Give the backbone structure.
Amino acid sequence: MPYKRILLKLSGESLMGHQPYGLSTEVLTSYARQIKAAAESGVQIGIVIGGGNIFRGLSGVTKGFDRVKGDQMGMLATIINSLALQSALESEGVKSKVLTSIRMEPIGEYYSKARALEYLEAGYVVIIGGGTSNPYFSTDSASALRGVEIEADVMFKGTRVDGVYTADPEKDPTATKFDEITFDEVYRRGLKVMDLTAFTLCKENGLPIIVFDMDTEGNLARVLAGEPIGTLVKC
């Protein structure tokens, strides 16, 4: 196993499955099974989940919400998703803890690096909800921050796309996929891997990113085993 500890970033939108919004029990169960297999292989797993299946703060601004209030609503959406994933993991017999960047005991324990590391070393899957607890920061930024804090070997960005392409593969049929790419080349090409704040945080702290398709069951195990099914972004 090439990794001791990973930060897994999951898309909130992916949790919808084929629904227009909300949570798909099928997707949650699939994710839980994959995470269980990864945990049983001995890797320590921290998880950050987006909230776009419930509420996205930035889109709320266009509907009349104050940006700060909208982002706070989005933070709460990530905690709902974190609890849903925890429930799915527990149904699979996986020990997990939800830590929140905003104080809301008993829903989740208040996040600290020391607490997260303690649980990871004890064999728990640690789900960190609430974003960075600050407005104007995405869950991409939260995942980069938590990945650096917990000293993860790599960030796995699980999406509906199987890697980084020269263009959006859903819009451009001629787009080609990268097996590996450097942070600098992503900058030069203007590719959308994650938002610039998150991307810069990973680059400056030497945290590599692997972008892969999490929605195909078994892919998490494959990427953990080193199979080149996604795209590695590195210094």
Notes: Residues 67-91 form the longest helix (25 residues).
